[in-house]
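Table 4 source record.
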Amino acid sequence: MNKKIKKVVLAYSGGLDTSVILTWLKEHYDCEVIAYCADVGQGKELNGLEEKALATGASACYIEDLRESFVIDYVWPAIKANAVYEKRYLLGTSLARPCIAQRHIEIARKTGADAVAHGATGKGNDQVRFELAFKALAPDISIIAPWREWNLNSRTALIDYAKKHGIDIPVSKEKPYSMDANLLHISYEGGTLEDPWADAPDAMWQLTTAPLDAPDAPQDIIIGFEQGIPVSIDGTRFTSATALLEKANEIAGIHGVGRIDIVENRLVGMKSRGCYETPGGTLLLHAHHDIETLTLDRDTMHYKHMLELEWAQRAYNGTWFDPLMQALNGFIDATQKHVTGEVRLRLYKGSITTKGRRSAHSLFDENLATFEASTYDHTDATGFINLFGLPTKVYAERHSHDQ
């Protein structure tokens, strides 16, 4: 990089990688380094982080509580979009990255930094997600990705560098897999999980009870929505989006809901085996889809289904702040005007079963749907079928002798 960097804001976790990066930035760029950590629900990982960052050489450390913003501005839009990547993945990591990146840029502006840095490796999705957000929000700012610049290409090399430079790192056995946690999920990948045939370790899962060990008695639960957004559980209204998601995680987790083990297609081209726990998100997404079946008209719902795939793909790819994503959100928000009501669900040993749904905006007309006498005129169907089937009939008549 030719530009002289004077001050950089580093996305910092306090682990081996970012501790080394903090020192490497100061050494390689001869610049001031500000540490930044976003709290999106990873919990105890934040303990002692500021002290560690300052001791490692950061001039300041910002620890930002983004939990409520993460849920309201990122998770709820995903619920409204019924967003699922490749039919299975509920985008827990993908949604957190633009939230983290947005505050990253705000701190860079606030502190007068001329660069931002991250610890994502050169072979994963996160480098793309972070950097596309940076480019959209601050196209003038420099981006430093050490994993694409340095020659420290192994854990051993990082440890050796840390020892050489007196960086205080915990001396512990390497985990058999890597984890990333936030309010929506925990992801697990790498290590023993790199063999797609191998069982995921039973002790790995942290948010959910193993379905076989879940309660023998099912639990019924009612989720309330207003304009597509979850607002209540069993009649209790939550003023905090964070609290509602945490409660949904607790209830669904007890019953073993939300575990998946998949091989996904990464944006950078390779396949990756990932295990995910998303108990509350799985519960809320299931409920949201059901309330939509009651309140959306057929054509809007079917068209929305097609756009949901595009929404999920773009969220996964990191194009959160692009014009098309904003346009998709505008459409989806418009569809949610009447998506208000309640869904009753039953949780049992990893499964969710819909037991009922109701809404003041319901488009279900019992008078029309009933098999008993109603105002529906059956004879209307004759003309409808004749017109709807006309292209089929004409084609068959013209080509009846082709075979």
